[in-house]
Amino acid sequence: MAKPSSRNHIIAVATELFAERGLSVSLREVNEAAGLSAAAVHYHFKNKGALIDAVLRSRMRPKAEREGQLRQLATAPKVTIDDIVRTLLAPLREVLSEDAIAGRQYARVIARVYAEQSEELPLLDEFLSPANALIAMLAQQRPDLSLLQCRLRYGFAVEAMLNTLSCVHFPSPFGGDEVADDMAMLFDELQQFLVAGLSAP
Questions:
Q1: In Å, how far are 2, 3, 109 from 167, measured between CA atoms?
Q2: What percent of the chain stands above pLDDT 90?
């Protein structure tokens, strides 16, 4: 039987494997990489969906707290597109500010979950709920756009955010030797880029 402390070890190993090799990684592979017995993962997680759920929750604020932040923004006297983007970036900004390496792995797992968009994936409703709330706020700020256009632009913003934050050596593929290791600068530039995209005619 696995020790209680092995749960966090399994989550850390699974995060790394899911980030590097995708969500198709099996529970057996996670067990082997964690150096634990064959029953260790099943002791803590009944299936892979439960393990992915635990990985996502490992660096996510409690649902009630996240919903409270959205309600606070929605009821603010004046909501700007800058506010919407800041709220979108806030969770991963906090994660990467605490640990850039583990944070990028976590962002890569989120990107994989987002890309697969399977109804069987955990936390789907919890991802869609804040997305719908922010899209509704964007629609209020951009009455000149249709709801479909708002959803498309929000989707573009999420794609840009996840691809940027999950890239270890960003922006080196585009020439030059500089790497954006300064998280504050990276997020500030990303914030301006996304605001410009959501504000464009």
A1: 34, 34, 12
A2: 48
Q: Write down which residue in 57, 74, 96 finishes a domain.
A: 57
Check whether residue 68 and residue 53 sit in a common domain. no
- Whole-Å CA distances, 187 to 9, 45, 174: 29, 34, 18
At 38 the pLDDT is 74
Regions of the chain short of the pLDDT cut 50: 1-2, 4, 179
| Residue-range definition of the domain harbouring residue 42 | 6-57
In the structure encoding, which two tokens stand for residue 161, read together? 């955010």
Tell me whether the omega of the peptide bond preceding residue 4 falls within 30 degrees of 0, making it cis.
no
| pLDDT for residue 75 | 86
Q: What is the DSSP letter of 43?
A: H
The pLDDT, as a whole number, for residue 2 is 47
